Amino acid sequence: MSGVDPTELVAGAWQLRPWPAAYADLDDLLLEQGFHGADLLAERHARLDGWRHGDLLGFAVREITTGESVGEVVVRIEDGTASVEALARAGCAPQPEAADAVRRWVGGALGLRVS
Predict the structure, then answer these.
(1) Pseudo-torsion of CA 16, 18, 24, 27, nearest 10°?
(2) 82's torsion region: left (phi>0), alpha (psi -120 to 50) or beta?
């Protein structure tokens, strides 16, 4: 798939900002996920460039009224199929409605099958 325009979504109390626009929290989130050193740099690069390549679309999940970063939703695209994964930050509850909104967007706006 070719590039995808970064798109901001809203899911109830959650603002979903594409990583290129919300990169300030990305390193902290990746550190929480166990990335360090060269692996952290490579993963940051992949997340920030994923929209341009159309294969890795990441969204920062933020509480809409406070802007608090509570996690991310990651879409991995391969052979016309997308997988959607929601990851909560340490100490934050998972936000399934955020992942559901991204699944609907992937299926509707991008026309991809979601596994």
Answers:
(1) 100
(2) beta
Q: Which residues contact 108 (CB under 8 A, 6 or more apart)?
A: none
Q: Which of 60, 115, 71 is nearest to 93 (CA)?
A: 71
pLDDT for the residue 15? 95
The pTM of this model reads 0.90
Summarised one tens digit per residue, pLDDT across range 85-108 is: 999 998 898 889 999 999 999 999
CB 72 within 8 A of CB 61: yes
HEC states along the chain?
CCCCCCCCEEECCEEEEEHHHCHHHHHHHHHHCCCCHHHHHHHHHHHHHHHHHCCEEEEEEEECCCCCEEEEEEEEEECCEEEEEEEECCCCCCCHHHHHHHHHHHHHCCCCEEC
Asked if residues 103 and 16 have their Cβ atoms less than 8 Å apart, the reply is: no
**In which band, very low, low, confident or very high, does the pLDDT at 24 lie, cut at 50, 70 and 90?**
confident
